[in-house]
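Appendix C reproduces, verbatim, an entry submitted by the partner laboratory led by Prof. M.T., so that reviewers can inspect both the input and the predicted structure.
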Amino acid sequence: MTSEPGSGRTVPGVGWVLFATAGAGVAGYGIQVVASATLDDPGLYIAFGTFWSAMYVMVTLLSGIQNAVTRAVRPAGTAREDGVAGAADLAVLAAVVVGALAVLAGSVVVIDGTDGPVGGAAGWMLLAGTGYVGVTLVGGVLQGLQRWRAVAGLTLTDSAVRTLLVVSALLMTAARPQLFAAMALPFLVAAVAVGLATWSRGRGRFTLDVGRGELVRQVLGAVVASSALGVMVSGMPAVMAAVSRDTTPQRLAELVMVTSLARAPLIVPILALQGFLLVRFRDGHDRAVQVLRRGGSLILVVTVVAAGAAAAVGPAVLDTVTGGSYAIEPWFVAGVVVGAGLLGVQVLVGSALLGRSHHRDYVTMWTVSAVATVLLVLVPGSLGARSLLSMIGGPLAGMAIAAVLRRVAAADRGSSPAGR
């Protein structure tokens, strides 16, 4: 049984979301294994991998929409008199975002042509973007209404359809357009299927607690924040590669592999719970600080234990898995895990800021973190040391500026006539 609004039963909701996230992760990994085994043509494999990577970079950028919608959605009757007004506002928002994606895709086609490697994929990327906008809106509404089982269903439907289509296309040695379509279409299928299943039964009526203009502003800010987060998570290997001029390919491969593998167990579950955390902070007026302290302490304790374990067994595991091709120092593995834990705490802090409607502080925190992440990796030293400094210093810089901004805001309230 999942938690419903007002029931107070929140742990089952976490279970559904984590189960769906784990299932989607296994499915995505399976697709990559099948692709590596069936795509003998290097050019086709590169096209597949590039489209997959670019699609999920876009997903990261657009995920801010879901966070903003989650915060704004309330059950019908709690914010406006008619839930249809909320649906109309989201429809306008969707039209604006899809229109912007269409302009971008059209520009790519004009530059590269329909037969070019980039222009030929632009239409399918537009389809993926359009479908994912639908996913962010449906998912945001469902999270705002605390319908966690339906949220899990959205994630599982998307991953199941994508696994079926992509694996089928790979086994049939499909050409590029078929592979692109198989990767792009599931977002739209999942959004339509889960949306119809929810609202055709008369469930899920909602309103928004902000007007249309404010909603657009909040969404834009959330997209900026999710873009910054994308730089720190998905973009970190690319950042490392861009500043690796004095590093051998072998060493770069070792650092990137460990960075990708060691951070995922901590970061992925916390990112999956952003919607859940947003709702907890939005609705838990009296317990927000308590949730923040307990959640942050829990993440830090898990991080310390995980870092120690990673330092102890990580290098040996890497040596075994790669057949001795790669080697890594214990201090680097432990440092990567510490950076992941701090990033997890920052996600928790960000959820608190956005859930409590501190939008400007939320965007500023993530922007400062992303800038610090890039700048710190440019300091003198070995790539391993600079990368750790970047992964640890970025989150710390962002959370520090967020703490300063909240203290300044509290001081301003205290000195105002209303606060005296």
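Residues 1-9, 80-84 have pLDDT under 50 and may be disordered. Additional entries are available on request from the coordinating office.
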